[in-house]
Amino acid sequence: MGKDPLKLMIIDDNARFRALVRQILTTGDDRVLEMDDGAGVNELYAEFNPDWVLMDVNMKFVNGMDATKQLIQAHPHAKVIFLSNFINKKLIAKGLGLGAKAYVSKEDVFAVQEIIRPQSVITGEHHV
Q1: What average pLDDT does the segment 24-48 reach?
Q2: Contacts of 112 (CB under 8 A, 6+ apart)
Q3: 7-21, 62-76, 105-119 — which is least confidently predicted?
Q4: Which of 11, 24, 64, 90 could be disulfide-bonded to 35 (CB atoms 3.0-4.6 Å)?
Q5: Is residue 72 situated within a structural domain?
Q6: What residues contact 102, with CB distance under 8 A and at least 6 apart?
Q7: 22-27 average pLDDT score
Q8: CATH of the domain at 106
Q9: Which of 40, 50, 82 has its CA nearest to residue 65?
Q10: Mean pLDDT, to the nearest integer, of 49-72?
Q11: How large a percentage of the chain has pLDDT more than 70?
Q12: pLDDT at residue 125, as a whole number
C-alpha cells in the first residue's frame, strides 16, 4: 500500500535538523516548505496549506509557542506538532494548550511518522 503525498511545513532554526526530518518523514511525492523561524508563518501557511506543521520551540526571532498561538488563531484547523529538545511538563502543557496535536522530543522524531501517517505500520511490533 502506497503512502498518500503530504504537504509538510518544517519550522526549525537548525537547517541540519530540518534536512533530517525531511529525510525521515517524507517521500518523493511529498511537498515540504521549510522555515528557519516562526516569523511569517501565517502568510506561508495560507499560501502552502500544509497537512501538518512541525514546529521547534526555541527560535531566534519568533519562538514556536508564539508562532503556534498566532497560527491557530488565524487558522483554527492547522495541525501543529512541536518537535523540541526542551521537554518538561510545563512546556508540553503550554504547547498542547495552544492547540498543538502533539509535543515530541527531537530524539523521537521517528514517532512523528505514526502521527502524520497512522497507517504506516511496519510488520512486527514496531511502528514508525
Answers
A1: 93
A2: 21, 25, 54, 81, 83, 102, 104
A3: 105-119
A4: 11
A5: yes
A6: 81, 82, 96, 112, 115
A7: 90
A8: 3.40.50.2300
A9: 82
A10: 94
A11: 90
A12: 46
Q: Is residue 126 part of a domain?
A: no
Which residue is associated with the grid cell 516562526? 38
pLDDT at 28 over 90: no
Residue range(s) defining the domain that contains residue 80? 7-116
What does DSSP say about strands 52-55 and 102-105: parallel, antiparallel, or unpaired?
A: unpaired
As given in the structure block, the three cell numbers for residue 126 are 514496531
3-state SS record for the chain: CCCCCCEEEEECCCHHHHHHHHHHHCCCCCEEEEECCCCCHHHHHHHHCCCEEEECCCCCCCCHHHHHHHHHHHCCCCCEEEEECCCCHHHHHHHHHCCCCEEEEHHHCCHHHHHHCCCCECCCCCEC
Asked if residue 122 is part of any domain, the answer here is no
